[in-house]
Amino acid sequence: MSGEFNLIDKYFVGRQNQRKDVYLAAGDDCALVKAPANVQIAISTDTLVAGTHFLTDANPAWVAHKALASNISDLAAMGATPAWVSFALTMPEPDEAWLAPFCDAFFELANYFGIQLIGGDTTKGPLSLTLTVQGFVPEGKALTRCGAKVGDWVYVTGNLGDAKAGLDVILDDALRTRVAAESLEKAHYLSTPRVLVGQALIGLASSAIDISDGLISDVKHILKRSEVGISLDVSQLPISSELVQFLDDKVSAQQYALSSGEEYELCFTVPEHNRGSLQSALSHVGCKFTCIGQIRPQGTFELHDNGQKLDWELSGFDHFN
Ligand code: ADP
Ligand code: MG
């Protein structure tokens, strides 16, 4: 892109404190970094395309937050500690009115989590953002999707459903008059990656995943990889008062909680014998967490409401629409 180097220097270089494990960040052909002993490096890449993952006229600061938070959430789901990020930016023209607020928000979140931008690429084309995050996890201790066992308890962090209601607002201006519309729209963009929860779950949780496609869709990844089933109690789903006010119906709110994607909350399983340690470990973190069900033998997929079996068509919750 013409003026690429000016843009990179102006917006991406020298915005953060240098981490001790970064020997060379943006500016040369490669970044040079060094991981501490006895860790594995967790790496994840995600792309956000304008028009697909966010509207082209969306607030650039919110887009920056969403792009980085969704990537850091993948690290959180493995119990990893964020360290480095690379950023490939494609944009139609150098657009400083967009870049300035984007970068301010990007570095604010990056600094909060101590993750350093170590390089990237800047090209001309339709607006799209690709981030690769890297983090450290104690060797052999990463949380994965494959350790859930029959009898383990199923938990989620935070509240569920707000991001889907926020998307409704983003896509339909008529909904802006509803109660809580503005705060739900904000919730869609401004999730908090559960990094401290992920770290605290190491050695306690038998499996974990972050909710990017919707609880039902994502929990199915755990079930498949762990070769187990599940029973969920919808009356236990953590739902915000804003969501109930916005939808004005408890059952709809529960169904939103089951299907809402881009929540970036964690869903995890914990064996009975670790439940006590879980309470004390997470009380230090200060993040809400709720038990919503239990792992059952493979082939079982049940929804209950206070002990009453529900016959909701589960396939309807499989895709975020
Ligand atoms: P090369 O042609 O060797 O790939 P580039 O011109 O793409 O180099 O990039 C020059 C330097 O600027 C590299 O160190 C690269 O990591 C960094 N850089 C380019 N784009 C970005 C970006 N969007 N964010 C952070 N660093 C970037
Ligand atoms: Mg390049």
Automatic annotation (TrEMBL):
Protein residues bound to Mg(2+) 4: D29, S44, D74
Summary of the function given for this chain in its UniProt record: Catalyzes the ATP-dependent phosphorylation of thiamine-monophosphate (TMP) to form thiamine-pyrophosphate (TPP), the active form of vitamin B1.
InterPro entries found in the cross-reference section: PurM-like_C_dom, PurM-like_C_sf, PurM-like_N, PurM-like_N_sf, ThiL-like
Residues reported in the UniProt entry to bind Mg(2+) 1: T45, D46, D121
Gene from which the chain derives: thiL
Keyword Kinase: yes
Protein source organism: Vibrio alfacsensis
Domain PurM-like C-terminal: 149-304
Keywords: ATP-binding, Kinase, Magnesium, Metal-binding, Nucleotide-binding, Thiamine biosynthesis, Transferase
Entry protein name: Thiamine-monophosphate kinase
Binding site for substrate: H53, E262, F317
Binding site for Mg(2+) 5: D213
EC number: 2.7.4.16
Sequence positions that bind Mg(2+) 2: D46, D74
General remark: Reaction mechanism of ThiL seems to utilize a direct, inline transfer of the gamma-phosphate of ATP to TMP rather than a phosphorylated enzyme intermediate.
Molecular function per GO: thiamine-phosphate kinase activity
Similarity comment text for this entry: Belongs to the thiamine-monophosphate kinase family.
